[in-house]
Write a structure and sequence with these properties.
single chain; alpha+beta; Immunoglobulin-like; 2 domains; four-stranded antiparallel sheet; three-stranded antiparallel sheet; 7 strands; 29% helix; 31% strand; elongated; FixH family protein; transmembrane
Amino acid sequence: MKWNWGTGIVVAMALFMGFILYLVITMSTHKKFSFDLVTEEYYAKEVVYQKEIDAETNTNDLEEKIIFEITDNGLKLVFPDTFEESKIKGNVFLYRPSNEQLDFNLPLLLENSNVFIPGKNLIDGRWNIIIDWEYDGTPFMYKKSFTY
C-alpha cells in the first residue's frame, strides 16, 4: 500500500473519531463523572417559579440588603435591623450542585439579626444558598452561589 496525503487524512480522521468515541463512552459510563441533577422535581418547581421571582423581588426591594460574609468559622448572614426576629419564619437551604448527599436544610433562627452557619457543615468547594422566609405575610427569598 502506498502512503500518500489521502491515506494520511483518512487515518487521522479515523483516529480522531475513535478518540471522540472513547471520550463519550468513558464520560457516560464512568462513576467518577456521574453528577446529580440540581433538583429531582424539576417540573414541579417550574410551576412555583413565579412565586420565587416575586419573593426575590421583595428581597431586592429592601432598603437594607442582607450582608453575606465567609468567616474562618463558617458563614455569617446579617439581616436588616428593620425585621423583628419573632415575626420571621423560614429556612436556610444549602446545596452542593456536584453532590446531593452534602445538601442540608436549617431553620432560620436569628440572633441579634444574624444567622451563623458553622463551617463544620461545609466542605470546601462550590455551594448555593437559598434563604426562604416570610415576614408579616410577605415572602422573601435570597439566593447566592459561593465557594467555601
